[in-house]
Design brief:
about 70% helix, single chain, 8 helices, two-stranded antiparallel sheet
């Protein structure tokens, strides 16, 4: 999987590892948990740029956003950037929520990260196939886009992409 291919090609290749509905379901929960946990774990240190707080999480969100937006599918790119941004924003609010409980933020971040990955591996057990990133690390970037794409396709959008994916990877089962 080459990193700078169009979204349709990246999604079709990633989908070859994700045809089981149970695997897709675990990814719909696990991948957002992983993105959220990365936002938790990378929320410090904070720099101020133009009056706005900038963390490592927001820096990486910006870099990955450029990548998602440059894959040739505007709707999918914008939706992925938006979802990831909401998850990072929520992750940055976690210290406020946890202060009432006295839990260390980094421990919660690691726990959520572990749960997200556990769900991925459970899904691949159902699939009977290894995760896409084992063969190509770019699968780690494609995962959030795939999850957002699945939701958009279930909502009746991206139907041409859905047909291309099913033609190349087969229907879900």
């Amino acid at each position: 999987m080459q990193l700078f291919r169009p979204a349709s090609q990246l999604m079709a290749q990633y989908a070859q590892y994700h045809r089981s509905r149970r695997n897709i379901a675990t990814h719909l929960v696990g991948i957002p948990l992983i993105v959220f946990s990365i936002g938790v774990l990378l929320q410090g240190p904070t720099w101020v740029l133009g009056g706005l707080p900038l963390t490592l999480a927001w820096f990486f969100w910006g870099l990955t956003s450029l990548w998602y937006l440059s894959r040739g599918n505007v709707l999918l790119g914008l939706a992925t950037v938006l979802v990831n941004g909401v998850l990072i924003g929520l992750a940055h609010e976690l210290p406020v929520w946890l202060s009432a409980w006295g839990w260390p933020v980094w421990q919660v971040g690691l726990g959520v990260f572990a749960i997200g990955w556990f769900l991925q591996f459970v899904g691949h057990y159902f699939e009977g196939r290894k995760p896409a990133f084992v063969d190509d690390l770019s699968g780690l970037l494609v995962g959030p886009m795939f999850v957002v794409g699945e939701v958009l396709m279930w909502a009746g959008l991206l139907q041409r992409m859905r047909m291309d994916i099913e033609r190349q990877a087969g229907a879900t089962r």
